Amino acid sequence: MANLDERTRAWQERVERSLEQRPERKERFVNGSDIPIQRLYTPRDGVQTEEEYLEKLGFPGEYPYTRGIQPTMYRGRHWTMRQYAGFGSAEQTNQRFRYLLEQGQTGLSTAFDLPTQIGYDADHPMARGEVGKVGVSISSLADMQTLLQGIPLDRVSTSMTINAPASILLAMYLVVAEQQGVPWDKVSGTIQNDILKEYAARGTYIFPPKPSMRLITDIFEFCSKEVPHWNTISISGYHIREAGSTAVQEVAFTLSNAIAYVQAAIDKGLEVDEFAPRLSFFFNAHNDFFEEIAKFRAARRMWAKIMRDRFGAKSPRAQQLRFHTQTAGSTLTAQQPDNNVVRVTVQAMAAILGGTQSLHTNARDEALALPTEESARLALRTQQILAYESGLTDTVDPLGGSYYVEALTDAIEEAAWKYINYIDQLGGAVAAIEQGYIQQEIRRAAYDTQMAIERGDQVVVGVNRFTVEQERQPELLRVDPNIGRVQAERLAKLRAERAQEPVREALADLRAAAEGTANLMPKIIQAVRVYATLGEICDTLRQVFGEYRPAVF
Amino acid sequence: MQQIRVLIAKPGLDGHDRGALVIAQGLRDQGMEVIYTGLRQTPEQIVDTAIQEDVSCIGLSSLSGAHMELFPEVVRVLRERQADDILVIGGGVIPEADIPALQAAGIAMVFTPGTRIEDVASFIRSHVRLRDLADVPPVEPVAKQVDHIGIAVRSIAEALPFYTRHLGLTVDHDEIIPDQKVRAVFVRAGDLHLELLEPTSPDSPIAQFLDKRGPGLHHVAYRVDDIDRALEALKEAGVRLIDERPRPGGLGKRIAFIHPKEAHGVLTEYCQRTGEAAE
């Protein structure tokens, strides 16, 4: 290969000489994670020997899963097309769900409104102005029954973006399944259930970290016995990235959080090979195409190592990083919203080439409001075109072996390990969040990005370059402003009509269990079954656990 | 100048605070003092903090669609607490169509995604500035009211009929002021006088004024109670004066001129009425 090195050197020299006449666009090329990008990658970069190939890449479906977790990937089956939806009342969202299923969507993904996510009933004073806005309002089992009306829970898998009160929404879902006659070992779906990133980036926490971790591990334990096909957590880098982190930080902070969950479950006495196969991940697909692809591949390889070497997991399922991807909401612009369709397409391609298990493509109008039905359909069509027309899916990991992609995968992994090791030194993810370390890192990266955009170093088409004078205003979805009142009335009726004694009993039982150490899931299911509301259940737990109050850093 | 204090607030339950945090840091870098409320604030809490922290501006951020209910509520509570001189601005995912209603409700400006921090800062600066300046209480109210407005004319005989015949005003007084080498005719217009000034000599300051700028508005005179003290105060504050000590003016008043540069191009006079002319 001496010849290669010589020719490479000669080429470099020739190029350097020509730069005086024809300089490059920038002095230095770096990506968003501050990784320098070379002018050219050659066989000297990335994977070089057969040994290295076997160690770093291996084969799809085999450790370390860099090339994908299934042997045939999308030749076998496409990713699940799972569009996040939900707004207004349970009836409205049920209609949108049915519409999406009719359009060929293959799984559901539920957005809840903020009161639901923070454990307030729709008539709570803190819920003012927020009911039904960013998702569907669910205050009791009755709302969940309406939401899932006519949807066969043995055939459709449902993802629920719910964290602090995840146990309660899961309980409602299970009771509805039971009422549909579907046994729990036939239902499948995901709850987000990732509280650590709520403290760090997303903000819908209720309880302090310790009881929150208990609620999570209770779910792990309960589901591994009772609901074996349920993904008990979706450890999310998505919101960390949306809050402004770099790609490297997204991987590092997400895996650090994941390590904390696994450790907590092991400390509780759970067997890693039993609960870990149900852990899943959720990542962002951002603009830098190759950086994103490399990020997904690096994350997969790192997780396999963590599970095998750090936690001694033996089951392949426990070593595989399965993930959902959503395109990056923060890259969408309110200006010239149709441009967003193109951004989403590029991001979705990165997710597919990165080997995602399911995908949400954002709608073009999301920087302005929740998507209209028309723009939600276009977003789904984008995935379908990529799946059925583009040929991206005909071979496994098409970019494997690319000098650049492999070098970048290595670089991202290396930089992410540095963060993970540092967080370990701080005492793990929980300690790092309590000390504000992760929040500050994200904040700094977010500010750097904003400044780069304001200086014009980072171009955002339609915002700081290529702008137009008159923006055409698209049609937007309006959530019925009366929804808060309607929900409040419905709730008052429910509270008046239900049998009160069983509610009192169930809540007292729950309280006693929360004060002790028993698994809370069965108690929560019982409370849900007798129509105790979400707010009542959360209040019971608030009385025992207290509420999280973030320090302002 | 004093640092502008700004409260960045997250009303409602929305947890998206990337924008709020970036704006907070950006305004700090623009030299402002910024307090961030953290998440989940009720309108009442936001107003409480704003008053306690004595801010001149509140920046509200919401991405959850609750802005139509929560932003106007903040303004309402500010009014209730008589603190509605605080500038309120908003930002977030807010449809264009909602902006007029928010502005009508008292949100001075709504910044949508893609706004530069510099633009937010300059908006805040230009809109709280007036309030800050008006806010500085004078040690005591000095200028009681406009006493008269001086108008330079080449000939009183030619100028006066406009005021008497057409405006229907009456002449109160007519005198020669030797100190200024002018003839001054005082025309009453409600509570104040118009003082028509005609030079009595080519080296009169009014003659020079007429040569340079032609006839027209010459000066605005404010009535003060104690002209010596008032001048002393201006001198201490570094305000440029034409007359460091009062001199005799028309109607027996003691007068002094302040440099026109200080009033952005308006020659300004202080005058104190003495016993003989006091009404």
From TrEMBL, chain A:
Residues 33-547 form the Methylmalonyl-CoA mutase alpha/beta chain catalytic domain. Keywords: Isomerase. This is Methylmalonyl-CoA mutase, N-terminal domain. The keyword Isomerase applies. Pfam families: MM_CoA_mutase (PF01642). NCBIfam families: acid_CoA_mut_N. The lineage of its organism: Bacteria, Bacillati, Bacillota, Bacilli, Bacillales. SUPFAM superfamilies: Cobalamin (vitamin B12)-dependent enzymes (SSF51703). One of its GO terms (molecular function) is cobalamin binding.
TrEMBL record, chain B:
GO terms for biological process: L-methylmalonyl-CoA metabolic process. GO terms for molecular function: cobalamin binding; metal ion binding; methylmalonyl-CoA epimerase activity. Residues 145-273 form the VOC domain. Residues 3-131 form the B12-binding domain. Its cofactor is adenosylcob(III)alamin. Keywords: Cobalamin, Cobalt, Isomerase, Metal-binding. It comes from the Bacteria. CDD domains: MM_CoA_mut_B12_BD (cd02071), MMCE (cd07249). Pfam families: B12-binding, Glyoxalase_4. Coiled coil: none annotated. PROSITE patterns: B12_BINDING (PS51332), VOC (PS51819). InterPro entries: Acid_CoA_mut_C, Cobalamin-bd, Cobalamin-bd_sf, Glyas_Bleomycin-R_OHBP_Dase, MeMalonyl-CoA_epimerase, MMCE/EMCE_epimerase, VOC_core. Belongs to the methylmalonyl-CoA epimerase family. PANTHER family: METHYLMALONYL-COA EPIMERASE (PTHR43048), METHYLMALONYL-COA EPIMERASE, MITOCHONDRIAL (PTHR43048:SF3). This is Methylmalonyl-CoA mutase, C-terminal domain.
